[in-house]
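Researcher: Here's a chain I'd like modeled. Treat it as a single chain, no partners, no ligands.
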Amino acid sequence: MNCIIIEDQPPAQRILKKYIEDIGTLKLKATFSNAIQAMDFLKTEEIDVIFLDIHLPKISGIDFLKSLSNPPAVILTTAFSEYALESYEFNVVDYLLKPFSFQRFVKAISKMPTKNTGQAIDKKTRKEIFIKSGYEHIKVIIDDIFYIKSDADYTEIFLEDKKHLSSEPLRYWLENLDNNQFMRVHKSYIINVSKIEKVVSNQVFLNEKIIIPIGRAFKENFAARFLK
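Model: Modeled as a single isolated chain. Structure tokens:
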């Protein structure tokens, strides 16, 4: 998706540029310090999303929105929460209150409509996900995940030759991964069903070394789906 930034503060510009680069699904086409500069650009360039500050010189972000007859998707970025209600009258995608984290930025992007369809991005279309691990957000290719194991309030994300510790609980992954590809087979395990090589009794073999137990409470559902 092509995007632009309209933001007059250089530190905020730098943060947005870093987040846009890190997420990998956005292409930054231009950065403007005021909305008037962006108006002519939008007349000739196809943009999917604008990251728009509200407090801008010459013309505010809200007034800029009012001036657009057919605006692209807009994600507002501001240090002032009092404009949130008014902003949603313009059907903005999200309202990011500064300072916002990369995780919150990713959440805003996940609300974006897909290009040319008007449909929300859905779990099935995502090819990668960012895992929050301490102060880091680590990009992982979803198809590379073998299984996810619960460890109290944390989870371990297992790839073929490495693992990542995530600060998200198991229920987070149940809600954010495609349930056609990932299935809970035990109170402590979610597996990538595309990795299943064989099933022996109450065990799932994802390869000869990765063997996951099937919990009693999950066995009937698993059998109905895979052992017909």
